[in-house]
Every structure is written in structure tokens, then in C-alpha cells.
Amino acid sequence: MLILGIKVQIYYPYVHSLKEKRKEVHSLINRLEKKFNLSAREVAGQDQWQSFVLGISFTALRESEAIEMQAKIERFIFAEVNGEILSFDWDLFSLENY
Asked: Which of 76, 68, 71 lies closest to 10, judged by CA?
């Protein structure tokens, strides 16, 4: 079993309150979870108005499946986010011994 871990840092220059930012964050998380059947959560920047870090995880049986999903998620985020993507990092973790 493989776990795809993704960390995305996003900046929203037009957001002027935590309430506005949380609305954007929750909307993005809901769309990701519904479209790709994965887990997503705001993992840093909760008290900042205009930026946050999103953590995403997806389990896969094969490396090719995980890499294909990473590409789909990356395309989705770059197309759907109304803000600026500051970073998009990912890695694969194997749990073969368990």
C-alpha cells in the first residue's frame, strides 16, 4: 500500500478576514474530497487571513495509480483555486511491511 501525501501553500490576496478565508478553504476541501475520494485538511496558517497550507492524502495500491492521482489533483488545484499557489509538494510513502 502506498500513501500519496501532498502539501499545498495557497495565498488569497483578495481575502480580508478569517471568515472569508475559511469559506474558501472549506469550499476547496469539500470539492477535492467529493471529486477524488481523498482526505484533505488545513494543516497550517489557520490564524492568517490570506494564506494557508493544505494537506492532502490518498491511498493507492500501485505507484502508477498514486502518480496519476497526483497529476489529477495538481491540475484540479491549479485550475480551481481562486488564489495564488505558492508551493505544491508531494511524496509517496510505502507501508509494505505492515
From this structure: 76
What Cα–Cα distance (Å) separates residue 29 from each residue in 42, 65, 71?
8, 21, 17
CATH code for position 76? 3.30.70.1120
Are 8 and 77 a contacting pair, CB within 8 Å?
A: yes
Model-level pTM? 0.84
- Our count of domains for the chain comes to 1
How far is the C-alpha of 62 from the C-alpha of 94, rounded, in Å?
A: 10
Could you tell me the residue range of the domain that residue 35 belongs to?
2-94
CA-to-CA distance for 7 and 43, rounded, in angstroms?
A: 9
Residue 81 identity (one-letter amino acid): V
Q: How far is it, in rounded angstroms, from Cα 69 to Cα 37?
A: 11
pLDDT tens digits along 14-55 = 888 888 888 888 999 999 999 998 999 988 877 778 888 999
Cβ–Cβ under 8 Å, residues 40 and 56 = yes
